[in-house]
Each structure stands twice: as structure tokens, then as C-alpha cells.
Amino acid sequence: MGYSIFFLKSQLNQAGFKICFGILVLLNLVGMLLGYVSNYQRDFMFVRSAADNFLLASTDSRVIRMLFGLLFPLLASSLCIGHQKEKGIFTMLRMSKRQYIYGNAIIVVSMTVSAFAMALGLNQLLCFAAFPLSGADNRWGMAEYALPQNVDPDCLFDVWSVQNPYLYNIFYILIISVLAGGIALLVYGLSYTKTFRRLRPVQLSAFVFVLFMAMFLFSELLHIPAISVLAYIEQGHSVSVREYMVFTGCVYALGVALTIWGRKTYESI
Q1: Residues 144-183: pLDDT tens digits?
Q2: Residues ≥6 apart with Cβ < 8 Å to 150
Q3: What is the rounded distance in angstroms from the CA atom of residue 133 to the CA atom of residue 127?
Q4: At what angle are helices 2-12 and 97-130 packed, to 10 degrees?
Q5: What is the pLDDT of residue 89?
Q6: Is the pTM for the entire model greater than 0.90?
């Protein structure tokens, strides 16, 4: 428990974490405000529910939604990258290299997952306060009885967008947060390898960002959405739960492998 508190405080005190978390919260706040301004004094017959005004579903905040999707790999890779690697820290803390590296890895993942879940959850809670639970209009502009005909079985969780849109949003909050934790672990593992340990945190985050953007471009060229990170953080893409699990599992597996390899080859901190 003492080690966990140390790792947690160490990450929270990093300027990079505060800046990235602030940007994450700001995006969600601005997204909600854009929806509120667009609906202010609008006839109630055209006001959508709190679920349809959620950041990932709202058409009024599409600019912020696109910006969130673009910055997602960069924020996920930068949020907890400021861990310190100082010589002699093991003696000072009375912990082994394994305890330090693995303990820090767990905190990096848990804090990244929590940060994204809190920011997106805040957006949904603010939508609860600003919009009705059941709107007279919806994001598709269709009559309620016709919504089941609009379900695409190939899209991730699409059936829940009609049956329970709030549960649909919660599913996306979870899968986005878990994927962000995997990206953070990947960056953490890379930072202990010989090739990347000399890079500054900003440079390493930029490298991972470019890597995921390159995968997105390849997915567009080859028409394989399953290899694109944007397919899992934007609603309405033709991907399955299995493809998400494979994609996210590969990111986590690579992060774990690099962390273990880095522990064995990294002689001093």
C-alpha cells in the first residue's frame, strides 16, 4: 500500500499529467456547452435527450468530437509518461527494480483509465443536468417507432443505441478508457527499451501518436477498420467486440512484453 501511494503521488505531481487531464476535461466541458448553446431556447420538440447530447453522440459538438478522436492517442500516451527514473531510487525507497517498474506500470494504466472515464463520465453527468432524460427528438431525426429499423448489426453495440442509449454511452466510456490504458502501458514499456529510453517524454508520445495515425491511414487505404484506433473511439463504426478485444489485447500484450524486457535490460534508474 505504501508503494502504491508513492507511485500515485508521483504521477499526480507530474506537470504533464495535470496539463493532459486538464485538456481532456476541457474538451468534454466545451463539447457539452456547445450542445447547450445550440439547444438554448429551442422548441422542446427539437431538444434531444441527455444520451444524444453526450460528446460521442452529439451532432452539435461534432467539432469537439473530431478533435477528441484526433488527440486521443496523444493524450493517452502523454497523460502518465512523466515517471521519474533516478539513479539510486531503489535504495532510498527500499524496493527492488521489479517492484518499482511493475508498480509504476500498474499505476500508469489505472490512472489513465480513470482519467478518461472521469472526463467522459463528467460530460454525461453534465448532460443529465442540462437536457431531458427522454428527448422529443433524436440524433437520427426519426420517429421512435422506426428506430429499430435503423440498427446496423455490424456496428459495435449499435443495438444498444436504440434499446438503452445510456448503457450504450457507458459501454463506449469503458472501451475508450481501457484502450487508453493500453496505449499508456505501451508507451511506458517503450520508455524502458534501449532504442527509446533516450527520447524525451514529448518525443516518445509524438512517436506513438504518429504510429497510431499511420495505422489509421493504412486502415483507410486497405479498408480494414479493425486496425484503426478511431474505429473504437467513435460511435457507428463497423467493428465487432471480438475485433476490439483483439486490438486492445495486442496493445496491452505489447506493453507488458516491453515492460518485462525493459526491466531485464535496464540496469539503473
Answers
A1: 655 656 677 777 877 777 788 899 999 999 999 999 999 9
A2: 140, 142, 162
A3: 9
A4: 60
A5: 47
A6: no
